[in-house]
Design brief:
Order of helices and strands: HHHHHHHHH
CATH topology of the largest domain: Tetracycline Repressor, domain 2
CATH class of the largest domain: Mainly Alpha
Strand content: under 5%
CATH architecture of the largest domain: Orthogonal Bundle
Structural class: mainly alpha
Number of strands: 0
Helix content: over 70%
Radius of gyration: 19 Å
Length: 196
């Protein structure tokens, strides 16, 4: 039961932080949204900062579970079509999973306030994707699926526009389906240029 309450607190905190930011969220409102008193929240977390850090830890685990990590690497595609399919699976999950959407909003809001959020935003919006696709593209080059080039530069060229369109979905949700179509068209264009 205690773990359920902790998870409920973290779920509510993610929602409130994504809407109001860290500074705009207070424990009284958070506890009231859960039908708890402040002491009920403090029974599980000693402070708002403790909630914040537990939430960041949970975000890291959730991203690793759904997008891969150093311990759980995504497989290198066996075909060019599989690259597009893998990309679109990741994109669809990213723009439709509520926890991921709220996490992106929290990191965007708090990256200028909190050093840990800043590092996570950089990793999840830029360097982590570039690192992941550098490895994937190097593997695809080894398999003869992509022409030989600098895999890190190709990864950056591939992920930057996709990431930008995902952020557009957050700002203007009504453009999500159009952005998804653009990402798929971009992936196929990239393959036409770099595929073997």
């Amino acid at each position: 039961m205690a773990n359920d309450t902790k998870e409920r607190i973290l779920d509510a905190a993610l929602e409130m932080f994504s809407q109001n930011g860290y500074a705009g969220t207070n424990i009284r409102e958070l506890s009231a949204s859960l039908g708890l008193v402040k002491s009920g929240v403090y029974k599980h977390f000693e402070s708002k900062e403790a909630i914040w850090n537990a939430l960041l830890d949970r975000m890291i685990a959730y991203y690793a579970e759904h997008f891969g990590s150093a311990e759980h690497l995504l497989p290198v595609p066996e075909s060019l079509e599989e690259l597009t399919q893998m990309t679109m699976k990741m994109v669809n999950f990213t723009v439709h999973d509520e926890r991921i959407i709220m996490t992106r909003k929290v990191l965007t809001l708090e990256q200028y306030r909190d050093q840990r959020a800043c590092k996570l935003a950089t990793k999840h919006f830029l360097t982590g994707l570039t690192d992941m696709f550098t490895r994937i593209f190097a593997g695809m080059m080894d398999k003869g699926l992509l022409r030989k080039d600098d895999p890190e530069m190709l990864a950056f060229a591939y992920t930057a526009p996709i990431s930008a369109l995902i952020h557009l979905c957050d700002r203007e949700p009504e453009k999500t389906e159009e952005a998804i179509r653009q990402i798929e068209a971009f992936s196929r264009h990239f393959i036409k240029i770099y595929g073997v």
